[in-house]
Amino acid sequence: MLVTARFRRMVQETAGGLPRQFWWLWVSTLVNRLGAFVVTFLALYLTSSRGYSASYAGLVAALFGLGSAASSIVAGVLTDRVGRRPTLLAAQLGTALFTAVLGFTDGQAAIAVVAFLVGFCNNATRPAISAIIADIVPAADRVRAYSLNFWAINLGFGLSSAVAGLIATHGYLALFLLDALSTVLCAVVVFVRIPETRPDAPAAKADEPAVGLGTVFRDRRFMAVVGLTLLLALVLQQGSTTLAVDMGRWGITSTEYGLVIGLNGLLIVLLQIPLTRWVENRSRSAMLAAASLFIGWGFGMTALAGSSAWIYALTVAVWTVGEILYTPTLMGLIAELSPARARGRYQGVYSLSWSLASFLGPAAGGVLLERAGSGVLWGACGVCGTVAAAGYLLLGKRTGAATGPGPVAVVEAVAVPAPGAAPGAAPAAEVGQAPARA
């Protein structure tokens, strides 16, 4: 009975108090990731089923990443101008359409173009989803909400990866069609259950500057966070690219690699919720710095692994803990730094850092591994993590970061009154200053 009571209390503390719309969005995310087959198996499909070269498969993957990078800005602007809901629906329906088309497409040029469009539409959902969560979830609960969303992504991805290989034995076309179908189901859930959450734009004052993309790129503190995110995203990209190559050089089999990298998803599913409950009320800057060190030196330790799959597993466990700490904490910070009427733009620019990393990370890691050796590659990852940790601590010090939950610290910049606020009321958020816990 005591164990049951503790379990119920833990579930209540983890999932309680969040809006119903968030849970429908969570279900949509889970369904989408349960059917996310194509991205994982695209390179294998192109090389083993279609007979294309590994270099061509790499080009297609790069074009997919380029499409993702392009959509980050476009979708961010549309999320603010057109609305969260229509942008998300258009992105999901576009993803479903082009994913299905990709399964029937033949010819190198045609496949490359459609892969770019899949990447563009697929990533266009991110700014809208992140903005919706920021709109509907109170600031005190956002880290928990983003953590639950991240957990759903990894739970769905882990399950889909496990069954995708079995589905592929009946033909890769089934993967494309099931992926498209799951995305259509997500769009149906959004259409039926998720209302438009974009705050009504307040009447602009004569002396109030407009909030556009230029405002985002001139926000030095926010762009510093984006730069630090790019640095760590480049490191995390090595987990699905150069790590496999380096392990293969040491004689680690593909089966062992699968078990080692699978530990990443397993630990996220097991530890995401309890670690988030521990992190939720702690200093943003301290948690982001600690996570950066876990990620950087988790990969850095790979230089010591040699031919031991067990040591590789240990390194994956270390940087996975960093990833668990980093992602929801950072998403909460980004939401707090984003003014309500420009959340789409801010989320789009933030998403751009991950898209650029998916485009640049594999190439940069491959060059370092081939020309400088694994020691230099993994040592560089450790240095990147250390630089990022120092950057987050410096940002926290400059903004007078608090250690517990509290209001966003504001200075100057673009004041954005809360929707429906009385004249003279305090702004809901302001651009250019980190929150109290940043």
Walk me through this protein's architecture.
The protein is an all-alpha fold. It has two domains: 19-197, MFS general substrate transporter like domains (Growth Hormone, Chain: A, Up-down Bundle), CATH 1.20.1250.20; 213-408 and 431-438, Growth Hormone, Chain: A (Up-down Bundle), CATH 1.20.1250. Helix content is 74%, strand content 2%. It has helices spanning 2-15, 20-34, 38-49, 54-81, 84-104, 108-123, 125-136, 142-168, 172-193, 213-218, 220-236, 242-249, 254-279, 284-300, 309-337, 343-371, 374-398; strands spanning 415-417, 427-430. It has a two-stranded antiparallel sheet with strand order 1-2. Helix 2 (20-34) runs parallel beside helix 8 (142-168) and helix 14 (284-300) runs antiparallel to helix 17 (374-398). Residues 203-208 and 401-438 have low confidence and may be disordered.
Topology:
Blueprint: H1 2-15, H2 20-34, H3 38-49, H4 54-81, H5 84-104, H6 108-123, H7 125-136, H8 142-168, H9 172-193, H10 213-218, H11 220-236, H12 242-249, H13 254-279, H14 284-300, H15 309-337, H16 343-371, H17 374-398, E1 415-417, E2 427-430
Antiparallel strand pairs: 1-2
Strand order across the largest sheet: 1-2
Overall body shape: globular
* Proportion in β-strands: under 5%
Overall strand count = 2
Q: Share of helix among residues? A: over 70%
Order of helices and strands: HHHHHHHHHHHHHHHHHEE
Average of pLDDT: 79
Radius of gyration: 22 Å
Low-pLDDT segments, ≥5 res: 203-208, 401-438
CATH class category label of the largest domain: Mainly Alpha
Q: Could you name the CATH topology of the largest domain? A: Growth Hormone, Chain: A
What is the name of the CATH superfamily of the largest domain?
A: MFS general substrate transporter like domains
User: Structurally, how many domains make up the residues?
Assistant: 2
Q: Return the structural class.
A: mainly alpha
State the distance separating the first and last CA atoms.
40 Å
Largest sheet: 2 strands, antiparallel
CATH architectural group of the largest domain = Up-down Bundle
The number of helical segments is: 17
